Amino acid sequence: MNTYTTLLVEEADHVLVVKLNRPDALNALNSQMFDDLKAFFSKDYKDYTFGSVIVTGTGEKAFAAGADIKELHGMKAADAERLSSKGQSIYKLIEEFHAPVIAAVNGFSLGGGCELAMACHFRVASTKAKFGQPEVNLGIIPGYGGTQRLVQLIGKGKAMELLMTGDMVGAEEALRLGLVNYVVEPEQLLDKAKELALKINAKGPLAIKGVIRCVNGYFVPGVDGFALEVRSFGELADSADFTEGTSAFIEKRKPVFKGN
Ligand code: COA
Fold first, then answer.
1. Atom 34 (ligand 1) nearest CA
2. How buried is 103 (Cβ within 10 angstroms: 0-12 exposed, 13-18 middle, 19+ buried)?
3. What DSSP assignment string belongs to 231-242?
4. 203-254: per-residue pLDDT in tens?
5. Ligand 1 atom with the shortest distance to the CA of 110
6. Is 99:209 a contact under the CB 8 Å cutoff?
7. Is 135 a catalytic residue?
8. Burial letters for 28-44: b for 16+ Cβ neighbours within 10 Å, e otherwise?
9. Is the Cβ atom of 28 under 6 angstroms away from ligand 1?
10. Across-strand partners of 18?
11. 67-81 tens-digit pLDDT
12. Beta-sheet pairing, 168-170 with 130-132
C-alpha cells in the first residue's frame, strides 16, 4: 500500500477508500494534497482493476473545505492560472479514471472540495454534508471546473444562483438538486458507498470503463457521444467478458468477468 502525506488509503474487498487527511484545516486542498491525488490517480493506482475508489474526508466535520486559502493569499495572475490548470487537470484524471470513483461526502464540501466531489462519478452524502462554492466571498471564482460541472449537474439557473451568492445547501437540498444520489446517516455513509461500489465491481470492468468514457463524452465539445457509443459498443463486443456475460445469461449462472 502506498503512503501519502495528505491521504489515508485503505483497501478491502477491492474497494479503495481514499481519505483526505488534513482534519485540522478541514481537509483543505493544498499543493501537497494535489500532488498526492495526482500520484494516486495517474501513477500508483493507474492500472487498478476489478475495483472501485471511494473518496471521503477524515474527521467528522469536513469532506474538504476548499482550496487552502492560506496558500491562495497573495497569489497573482500567473500563479493563479497555473494553479487553476493544475487543479483542473487533476480533477479531470478523476473524472476520466477507468474505474468508478464515488464521493462519500461527510461534511463541508466547499469550493475546491465541492469541485472534487463533482469530479467524482457520483456522490453519496451524509445528513451532515453541506455543499457550496463560496469563492465569491473571497473575490474570486471556482478554478477547478466548478463553473462547468455545477451547471452540468444541477442546471444553469440554480448553478448561477449558488455561484453568485456563495450560499451553502444541505444534503437534502443537494439531493433535490441532483448534486448527490443518496443521503444517509453519517454512520451509514461509507457502508452505502461501499454497497454501491461492490455492486459495480461485480460487472464487467471493460463495460464500466465504457460507460465512464461515453457519459463523459457527452460533455466534451467536438466529441460525438453517439459515435463514441457505437465505437465502444463494437469494441466491447470483441471482449471475452461479453462472451462470458452472454454465455452466463444463457447458462443461467453468474458471469465471471476477467476484464479482457
Ligand atoms: N483553507 C485553509 N484553512 C481552512 C480552510 C481553507 N479553505 N477552511 C477551514 N480552514 C481552517 C481554518 O483556518 C481553521 O484553522 P485554525 O484553527 O488554524 O484557524 C480550521 O480550518 C477550522 O476552521 P474554522 O473556520 O475555525 O471552522 P468553522 O466551523 O468555524 O467554519 C467553515 C467552517 C467551513 C464554514 C469555514 O472554515 C470556512 O468558511 N472555510 C472556508 C471555506 C471557503 O471559502 N472555501 C473556498 C476556498 S477557495
1. 65
2. buried
3. HHHHHHHTSHHH
4. 999 999 999 999 999 999 999 999 999 999 999 999 999 999 999 999 999 9
5. 45
6. yes
7. yes
8. bbbeebbebbbebbeee
9. yes
10. 9, 55
11. 999 999 999 999 999
12. antiparallel
